Amino acid sequence: MAYHGIKYFRLSSEQRELAAEARAAAASAEALAKDESLRRTEAEKLFRDTQLRALQQQLSPHFLLNALNSVSAQVQNGDPDGATEMLSRIGAFLHMALETGEVPFHTLEEELDAVQTYLSIETVRFGDRLATSTSTSVERSCLSVQVPTLFLQPLYENAVKHSVGSRYGNVDIDLRVTEENGTVRIELSNSVRSAPGPDQPEGGIGLANVRARLASAYGAQSGLNVVQDENRFVVRILLPKAG
C-alpha cells in the first residue's frame, strides 16, 4: 500500500513537472509568436510607409517643373511682379511639402490647407485662363481624420486642367466629406462640357497614383470610383475613419 502511494506520488510529481514544462513551453512559444507578429507588423508598416512616400514623391517633380516653367515665362514676358508672387507661393508650398515629406499621413484639415496653397499657385500661373469656382463642405468630425499626404492634389489638378482647357466658361469644383459608421466618404466633382470618349482614361497618372496610395495605405478598406457624364466628372473615395 505504501509502495503504491509512493509510486502514485512520484507519477503525480512527474505529471506536474511535465505540465509545468508544457505551460512554460507554450508561454515561450506564444511570446515568440507575438514577437514575430510584431516584427512582421512593423516590417509591413515600414514597407507601406516607404511605398507611400515613393508614390507621394512622384507628384512633386511634375508639379514643380510646371510651376517653375511658369515663373520663367513670366520673367520673359516682362512680369516681374507676377514672377515674384509665384515664387512666394511656390516657396510656401515647398515649405509645407518639406515639413510633411517624411510623413505619409496628416489630417484632412492639413490636406485642405495644402489644396488651397496649390490652388493659389495655379491661380497666379494661369491668371484669367483659370475660370474656376470652388466649394467645400466637410463634416467637422472628419477634419482630424488621418489621410495620405497630398492625395487630393492630383484630383484638383485634373479639375484645373479641365478648367484651363475649357472654352465654355467657369468650371466649378465641389468637395464634400461625410462620415457614417466609421467610414469617411469623400466626393470631389467638377463640371464638364462634353461626354467622355470610349477610350478616355479616368484621370491619367494622377488618379492612378491616388488609387495606388489608397490601396497601399488601407488595402481592401478603401475604395475609389470614377463617374463621368455630359455634365460632371465625379471621384468618390471611401476610407476608414481610423486608418
Overview of the molecule:
The protein has a single domain (2-240), classed as Heat Shock Protein 90. Helix content is 59%, strand content 19%. The chain has five helices and seven strands. The strands form two sheets. It has a five-stranded mixed β-sheet, covered by helices on one side. It has a two-stranded antiparallel sheet with strand order 1-3. A hairpin with a 3-residue loop joins strand 6 and strand 7 (232-240). The longest helix is centred in the first third of the chain and has 75 residues, at 2-76. It is elongated, with a radius of gyration of 28 Å. Residues 2-9 have low confidence and may be disordered.
Instruction: Based on the coordinates given, report the CATH architecture.
Output: 2-Layer Sandwich
* Helical content (DSSP H or I, runs of 4+): 55-70%
Oligomeric state as shown: single chain
What is the radius of gyration?
28 Å
| Structural class category | alpha+beta
What is the H-and-E element order? HHEHEEHEEHEE
The neighbouring-strand order within the major sheet is: 2-4-5-7-6
How is the topology of this model organized?
Elements: H1 2-76, H2 80-100, E1 105-107, H3 108-126, E2 132-138, E3 146-148, H4 153-165, E4 171-180, E5 183-191, H5 204-218, E6 223-228, E7 232-240
Parallel strand pairs: 2-4
Antiparallel strand pairs: 1-3, 4-5, 5-7, 6-7
Helix pairs in contact: 1-2, 1-5, 2-3, 3-4, 4-5
